[in-house]
Amino acid sequence: MPRRALIVLALFAALFSTVSAPASAAVHGSCTISGCDAARTAYNGWRQLGFPTARAWHAWPYGQYNFAGGRFYNREGQLPAGHTFQEYDTHPRPRGAARDARRIVRDVTTGVVWYSPDHYATFYRII
How far is Cα of residue 76 from the mean position of the Cα atoms in its chain? Predict the structure, then answer.
């Protein structure tokens, strides 16, 4: 095999062998970062709507909408095992608009609620 082909093959092998698993999420017992107040406001809005469980857009004040994402499966195991979770967006927007990374996750089993500003890489307890 020509030397150039061996080099290319070695580069591809190195590229695919260095892919690592994502870092574990961090779970914090309180929330003092930017965005916590908005997450608490969103929690109160979802509470007034009765914490819908189906994935759907829901009317929000001032002509906006917010998305309830349905069940959160805790696949990474960062939150308590054996519990049931629902996830909700925190920032209203026009119906059908792109969703951002900010979510609240409600533990249906205990009522504890976490804010995740980075799509489940970090959790901050807000309730």
Answer: 12
pTM here is 0.79
- What pLDDT, on a 0 to 100 scale, did the predictor assign at position 4? 56
Q: What is the CATH number of the domain that holds 67?
A: 3.10.450.30
CB 86 within 8 A of CB 71: yes
The three-state DSSP-derived secondary structure of 36-47 is HHHHHHHHHHHH
Cα–Cα distance for residue pair 47/84, rounded to 1 Å: 17
56-82 residue pLDDT tens:
999 999 899 999 999 999 999 999 999
Q: Which domain holds residue 109?
A: 47-127
Q: Could you tell me the two tokens for 36?
A: 């916590």
* Structure tokens belonging to residue 66: 């917010």
How far is Cα 37 from Cα 109, in angstroms, rounded to an integer? 24
